[in-house]
Design a protein that fits this description.
The chain folds into two domains: 247 residues, Bira Bifunctional Protein, Domain 2 (BirA Bifunctional Protein, domain 2, 2-Layer Sandwich); 92 residues, Anticodon-binding domain (Rossmann fold, 3-Layer(aba) Sandwich). It contains 15 helices and 16 strands. Helices cover 38% and strands 21% of the residues. Helix 12 links the parallel strand 12 and strand 13. Helix 1 packs across helix 11 and helix 5 runs parallel beside helix 9. The radius of gyration is 27 Å and the shape is elongated. The protein binds adenosine-5'-triphosphate and magnesium ion (MG). Adenosine-5'-triphosphate binds next to strand 6, strand 10, strand 11 and helix 11.
Amino acid sequence: MILKPKGCYDVIDKEALKFKKINRIIEYYCDFYNYEYIRTPLFEASDLYHRSVGDTSDIVTKETYDFEDRSGRKLTLRPEGTAGVVRSFIENKMYGGSLPRKFYYNGTMYRYERPGNGRNREFTQFGVEVLGSNDEAIDAEVISFGYRLFEELGFKDLTVKINNLGDKKSRESYKNALVEYLKPHINDLCADCQKRIKTNPLRILDCKVDAESSILKNAPSILDYQSKESNDRFNKVLEYLRYLDVDYEVDKTLVRGLDYYDYTVFEIISPLEVLKGASTICAGGRYNNLTEVLDGPQVPCIGFASGLERVSLALDEIETVEKPRLDVYIMYINEEEKIKCLTLAQDLRNSGVCVDYNSLGKSLKSQFKDADRMGADKLIILNSEDLNKGLITVKDNLTKEEVKIDENEIIDYIVSNV
Ligand code: ATP
Ligand code: MG
């Protein structure tokens, strides 16, 4: 038997219902906030990720699925969604049109990670990107949009952790100060952090291994290294968040795993026990220089991405998941009844009724069981004797009441009773 690859999973049964619900709310909310759907390729030129996510990021150094196609092109399965959206924005010269563009995407991403709770190798990210506005109100809108969307999904007690990475100059002076501070403690940090101090010192603050270390807790704060302009900008974002009633907490150690972020960075955290080790349900920030890194003009952008497996994990705790539902299940035994079943199912479906029927020549008893499993409201029980009199039996699956309806009135009857 061939099994699924490690770190992948099938979305079936209850998981499929949860994903349908999540996707439905996402679609509804994105329409509501006027975000356009965008779909970009599942694989892109490897260079796109090396340049955007950054050669020293964890994702590029150890998590990408790289391959060559038959013509020797170097390609990478997408590990995240932003780089593809920005590539498309530049390639299609959208920067020349009306701005900002507000996009959302929802699709699978690939990272070679150690699988665990809410952590997979193939996983699904929903994300939004706003390209072409540096208005602090857009930072606040993107954050509050995520916050409200997760509330709508049933999450409670969400916290937004927020920090300001500032401009390149303040980040550079902070990096130097951080390295100076960490140098004497370096042997007490994990092996990865000992490398990061040379390649990507800010990422040390995001280390999962050393997360509780007092060395990191006492590190200098990036907020003390900001220019006035950057500080004012951050305070304005916080002010707008207060107007929008978003519960936030400034976290001076918050940095993101990807290299392209500047200014506002944030995470939305859920306290649910089931998300232990994977409590960040949504993470993002501003990336005002990424378009230039990818050879486009400078365009300020902000976005977030959310891991939907974590959201799905949480749904078990926050509510009972919807059950499958069918308006009508049609039952039959012989060929004459079967033909009636097929035409009746088609007519009902054309009238907007959700219908299914037995397709394996099952016994009546098994058909009753199937109808229950599918959550049928009404059963249409076809039998030749009734049909010869021009009648059709309809049973209410909840009250178990049965009525015989004239064949010519069955569509109207069902439409007005489901
Ligand atoms: P983490 O710190 O948990 O590794 P990250 O910094 O790598 O996350 P991002 O690249 O910012 O995460 O991705 C945004 C979101 O995507 C995460 O907050 C999480 O919800 C989800 N995510 C990231 N990696 C995985 C994975 N391997 N499996 C499932 N979801 C993931
Ligand atoms: Mg990660």
